[in-house]
Amino acid sequence: xxxxxxxxxxxxxxSANILLGRLQESGxxxxxxxxxxxxxxxxxxxxxxxIKLSVRKEDLAMVTGVLKEFDEAFxxxxxxxxxxxxxxxxxxKQAAGNVIASILTWLFSSYAVSIENVYQCQQCGYxxxxxxxxxxxxx
Length: 139
Hints:
This protein is an alpha+beta fold. It is 37% helix and 21% strand.
C-alpha cells in the first residue's frame, strides 16, 4: 500500500484542479480528496480541512520543486492594485482570531485549527483575501 502525503489544501475546486493538472502534466501521480464534499456543501470546508491535494510520499521531493516553480510564476503575474509592485506574499492575517487559533492548535495539537491568510504587498502593505490580478494590461 502506498503512503499518501497531503501537500496543499484548498477552499475551492478551481485552484485545486489547476494545481492537480499541473502536477499530472509533470508526470506525478496525485489525487484530490474531499473535493465533492466541499463543492456540494462549502460550509463544511473548514470542518473537514478543505480539498486535499495528496501525492505519494516517494514523490514529495519532485512535487516540492514543481510547486515552488508554479508558486513563483503565479506570484510574478500578480500586481498590487495600489502600487503595482509584484512582491506579494501569502501571510497570516493579523487578527485576534488567528492568535486564539494558534493557541488552540498549540494546546490541542491533534486538532488542526484553520488560520486565515491574506496576500500582502510587501511594498505598500495592501492586503487581499485573493491574489490580485495583473491589471496593468487593462489600464
